[in-house]
Design brief:
This protein is α/β, with parallel strands linked by helices. The protein is 41% helix and 12% strand. The strands form three sheets. It has a four-stranded mixed sheet with strand order 3-1-2-4. The chain has a four-stranded mixed sheet with strand order 7-6-5-8, with helices on both faces. The protein has a two-stranded parallel sheet with strand order 9-10. Strand 1 and strand 2 form a beta hairpin. Helix 6 packs across helix 7. 35% of the residues are buried.
Amino acid sequence: MFTERQHQDFYKALLEKNTNYEGVFFVGVKTTGVFCRPTCPARKPNFENCEFYGTAQEALLASFRPCLRCRPLSHPNQVSELVRTLVEAVEADPAKRWKDSDFDALSVDPSTARRQFQKRFGMTFVEYARARRMGIAFKQIRGGESVIDAQLETGFESSSGFRDAFSKIMGAAPTHFEKHPSLLKAAWLDTPLGPMVAIADETHLYLLEFVQRRGLEREIERLRLRVKAAIIPGLTPPLTQIDAELKAYFDGTLTAFKTPLHLMGSPFQRLVWEELMRIPYGHTRSYGEQAKAIQKATAYRAVANANGANQIAIVIPCHRIINTNGDLGGYGGGIARKQWLIDHEKRHIS
């Protein structure tokens, strides 16, 4: 995750087409939906329309497609015909799950494709295709398409488009479950502030985020890789519990969550998150006050970064941290949601 200062430096490099930054970052352009290399010759976007990523895979998972002018999946002045052919094939049918027969139809050797993509981009072609598919699926859900009409309460018993889309995002086909050493389940939870995704095993909650949060697909992918688990649609006791507790929270009748959590952060991050959960319901603190609360008064910037890395929204109440001057500061779920949560809690303090 880059700092604000790095974002400014990257944007300056983008305007100058600075070749020294090739391979350092990619830029996603929100207005066009493409991601580019630093030296792209296209017209430059405004800073507020840029998102910066360390790898092409991160940009793909955020639903950006590769720019056709600067071709970010090929090194400068070294365009691979094999790579170009495969990328164009994916863009022609992003939802396709590639099989050996698909490679045969293009006269491409699967092992060659895997090696070329791995060597140049740090991911195999299949990983690229899957990242693109995940990004598109999440973008559709965030856009409010019909997949959100099916509710989790159905238990995914129907053959609805929601189940199909959600299963594709989670990336585990039923016939392949037994190949994974562990299993997490994901639930779609409706709230007054919009849908959320919750992920848990049989005993603990791992993730709770608003679906509209940009970068959610990268969070899910990192979680999957870190715990070496398949993530599939379904319900577990912690998912049922957090669903009920969220309903009570939004009704104004619950002020403290009891769903058991699995915190997957550094020791410092866990220290910050545990202190966040000690902030009283309906109250706020500044980043500086939070740093003092953990006996690290000068570490307010690190505290802010730990807040941003929180993957269990509302339960770990990073929305209760504001700037010293009273401004709201940042929030992964969006400033409007942060203001709503603060106001909601203040209205229901007993």
